[in-house]
Amino acid sequence: MKPNKAQKELIESTRGIQLVDAGAGTGKTFALVRRYANLLETTGVEPWDLLFITFTKNAAEEMKERVMTICSERIDSLTLQDAPILTFHSLCHRILDEHGFTAPKYLGFRENLSGSINILDNSLLEQNYFRSFLKRFQQTNRPETKFLKLLSDKTDLLWLFHSLAAKGIFPLANQRAASWYGAGEKYLDGDPEKFLKLATRQNRAGQGKTGPVQGNFLKKIKSSWKNRCLPPEAPTRYQLPDPTGKTVDPALLREAFQQDRQELKQFLHQLYSGYIRFCLRENYLNFSFLMMFAYVLLAENRAVRQSCQYHHLMVDEFQD
Length: 320
Prior knowledge:
Order of helices and strands: HHEHHEHEHHEEHHEEHHHEHHE
Mean pLDDT: 87
Shape: globular
């Protein structure tokens, strides 16, 4: 198979940043593998100077097989076998395994990472662990558990922590006041203009066969209103709609955003940092916390950053 004009341009490029925006089946992986081979052949770099990253284990294995097929005549197969062609998670695990014993200290945790830490990729098993953590948390933090009553499924908090970690929002432990790494608290507080813009869009009434129908925002809020333990001052589900009855009252949207959420953030911080500490003591990390500690380690430790430098980096499926 010969590359087309666009693929050939990518394969032969050896400097600068290249972005490939193409759909499935258009030959992105084909071009990247051949670019990898071309970099080895024309620039004088060695396989360990090229970092090739993808999202899934199967994709990484396929990448390595293709590279070995193309380059095996020029480079020893054992060298290629050890080349850094990895998933994001494998790269983070490698960084922590080599340099990250004390990585948690950058977030204020006293616990260290052990050399035998387990990487947990089973969501059902982690839910069981999380329930065990919640049980302990509720026993020792009874005054702070009122927010848990708002959730019909408390394991939703686990997915919230995954999402926060993926967005770079990490709690700082061992602090007198609930504090967050970097600009994390700013992102938790949110941007009122962006919120109202998105909320207004979601709040628009739909158009049915016989006229306007409830907007998606109001539908979701009403459907989740049952089985909630709300404060006395909260509006009832019947007070939510505006006079048309099809959307949430815009004044309530603004009021909800402007409310003081400091107590809620403190609770979230306590639970979030408590679960990270629980994971460390139980000797396991989920994928989100694995990447969190690797990111913080690289951000805070210049020596580690320098030791993890590569001449070239290629990422397949970067949107993941």
